[in-house]
Write a structure and sequence with these properties.
Strand content: 25-35%
Structural class: alpha+beta
Strand order of the largest sheet: 1-2-3-7-6-5-4
Low-confidence stretches: none
Order of helices and strands: HEHEEHEEEEHHHHEEEEE
Mean pLDDT: 89
CATH class of the largest domain: Alpha Beta
Shape: globular
Number of domains: 2
Length: 267
């Protein structure tokens, strides 16, 4: 990716952002998140960026592999959160909202599925993985990883998996520029982070809900920490937790998990 760092910095300047930290672009790494975890321990500055054409050990949530095919965006950003109490838990929603807004600039109307998926017509376009490191003073650093299928649906996927995936190119019928998408994601992430830092979780949660998959009031199933929970999706609270109503009418928060809509009559 020769010259990619300089071009991305120029694209950011064209959008009114002089990027305040190093931008590293690699042809291949194990994981851009792992690169920035090392940079965090070595005291690199906030907003350091790592971007790779290909990852050999890309990960999604719960340690799942994220297929990182050339032609797509694999991007991570280092943050040292200075946020109001309780706001750090909303970082994944802020990152998802930033990606949703960024792809909209390219003509893709996406939706957000709790907690970190970006979908188009029910197909996954992008995912977010936020990994934090804590010390005696709380969260000392967070790495926000973003994977966006820009140009291709990874060929390594099984046919049934590929049917659940899409890309920007597939949605628009045109080739998309990875670095243009990266610049849009970075600028939108700064905006969402600033909103979180200044206004607390409410502003980000409200923005996230405006783009959310319209499952509210519908039956859903959540797999969380080895348990299967069923109920009615009622919203998202100030911590970014999913609010689930059980059969007795009791509403409780689910802090993490995988959620899917339950069709009428489905067990």
């Amino acid at each position: 990716m020769e010259g990619a760092s300089e071009r991305l910095a120029e694209l950011l300047r064209a959008r009114g952002r002089e990027w305040p930290a190093p931008i590293e672009c690699f042809e291949e790494v194990g994981s851009t998140n792992e690169v920035l975890k090392l940079r965090a321990r070595d005291a690199w500055p906030e907003w350091t960026v790592a971007l790779a054409e290909r990852q050999t050990e890309g990960r999604g949530r719960h340690g799942r592999a994220w297929i990182s095919a050339p032609g797509n965006l694999h991007l991570s950003v280092l943050i040292r959160p200075a946020l109001p109490a309780g706001a750090a838990s909303v970082l994944p929603l802020a990152a998802g909202l930033a990606v949703c807004q960024a792809v909209a600039e390219g003509g893709v109307a996406a939706e957000l599925k709790w907690p970190n998926d970006v979908l188009v017509h029910g197909r996954k376009l992008a995912g977010v993985l936020v990994e934090s490191a804590s010390g005696s003073r709380g969260i000392e650093s967070a790495v926000v990883g973003v994977g966006v299928n820009v140009g291709v649906v990874p060929a390594e996927l099984a046919p049934d998996e590929a049917e659940r995936i899409t890309s920007i190119a597939a949605q628009t019928g045109a080739k998309a520029d990875i670095l243009v998408v990266a610049a849009a994601v970075l600028v939108r992430l700064r905006v969402c982070y600033d909103a979180l830092a200044k206004g607390g979780p409410a502003a980000v949660v409200q923005g996230w809900l405006r783009h959310a998959v319209p499952w509210w009031g519908r039956g859903v199933e959540v797999r969380s920490e080895g348990r299967k929970l069923s109920g009615i999706a009622r919203g998202v609270d100030a911590r970014g937790a999913l609010l689930l109503e059980d059969a007795s009418g009791f509403v409780f928060p689910v802090l993490s998990g995988e959620v899917r809509a339950v069709r009428l009559g489905e067990p």
